[in-house]
Write a structure and sequence with these properties.
By secondary structure, this protein is an alpha/beta fold. The protein has helices at residues 17-25, 49-58, 76-81, 97-107, 152-165, 183-189, 198-201, 206-214, and strands at 4-7, 31-37, 62-68, 86-90, 110-115, 133-137, 171-175, 193-196. It is built from 8 helices and 8 strands; from the N terminus they run βαβαβαβαββαβαβαα.
Length: 216
C-alpha cells in the first residue's frame, strides 16, 4: 500500500470547517480522519452525525471515522449512512468485537479496530483476519496535541509481523503525536496510514506539511 496521510479534523478550525475540509481535499492527503468522542469512553466530546454529513458534502475523499465511544454497535450503521467509508471502533469498548465488525460490513463500509497504548497487539489475534485496518493509538485517546509514545513503533512492528504470519494485508494506521519529524520512522516500522492533527492544521503551510510527511 502507498503511504497515506489522514489529516484529523479534530484539529481543524470548527468555525471554518468547510474551508479546512476543502483545504484537505485539495492536498496530497488521500484520507480524511474524523474522531468521534462521547465523553464516556474518553473525557472529551467531539463530532456527531451532522458534522460528518457536512464533511462528506465538502469532500469526495475517503472518510476514515474513528469511534472513541462506548457501545459502538449501536451507532456504526448510522455513521456509515452519514458518509463513513471506514468505521474503526475500539477493542476495549466492545464486548463482542466480531459482531461489531459484522455490523460495519453489513452497513457497507470497511471495518477497523483500534487499541489503546496499554493494550497488547496479541489481543487482536482472533479478530485480525476479519478487519481491513488496525489503528494503533500512539497517545492516550481523547485529546489532541499529545507527544508520540516511542513504544508505539514496536507495536506497529509486532502487528505487521503478525499480519504477515497470518498471510494478511492488514492496513496499519497510527494516530497521535505524528509529524514530518517522526513519520519516516513510523512508516518504516510497518505503518501505512498516519493520522496528523496539529502537525497539519497548526502548520504555516498545511499542504506542504502533508507532503513532508509522505516523503519523510
Amino acid at each position: 500500500m502507498n503511504r497515506i496521510v489522514a489529516p484529523s479534523m479534530l484539529s481543524a478550525d470548527f468555525g471554518h470547517l468547510e474551508r479546512d475540509t476543502r483545504m484537505v481535499d485539495a492536498s496530497a492527503a488521500e484520507w480524511v480522519h474524523i474522531d468521534v468522542m462521547d465523553g464516556v469512553f474518553v473525557p472529551n466530546i467531539s463530532f456527531g452525525f451532522p458534522v460528518l454529513k457536512a464533511i462528506r458534502k465538502a469532500t469526495p475523499k475517503f472518510l476514515d471515522v474513528h469511534l472513541m465511544i462506548v457501545n459502538p454497535e449501536k451507532y456504526v450503521k448510522r455513521f456509515v449512512e452519514a458518509g463513513a467509508d471506514l468505521v474503526t471502533f475500539h477493542y476495549e469498548a466492545s464486548d463482542d468485537p466480531a459482531a461489531c465488525i459484522g455490523l460495519i460490513r453489513e452497513a457497507g463500509a470497511k471495518a477497523g479496530i483500534s487499541i489503546k497504548p496499554a493494550t497488547p497487539v496479541e489481543a487482536l489475534r482472533g479478530v485480525l483476519p476479519q478487519v481491513d485496518l488496525v489503528l494503533v493509538m500512539s497517545v492516550e485517546p481523547g485529546f489532541g496535541g499529545q507527544s508520540f509514545i516511542p513504544g508505539s513503533l514496536e507495536k506497529v512492528a509486532q502487528l505487521r509481523a503478525m499480519a504477515r504470519e497470518m498471510g494478511l494485508g492488514t492496513i496499519i494506521e497510527v494516530d497521535g503525536g505524528l509529524s514530518s519529524h517522526n513519520a519516516g520512522a513510523v512508516y518504516g516500522a510497518g505503518a501505512d496510514v498516519l493520522v496528523a492533527g496539529n502537525a497539519v492544521f497548526g502548520a504555516a503551510d498545511p499542504q506542504a506539511e502533508i507532503v513532508k510527511m509522505l516523503n519523510a
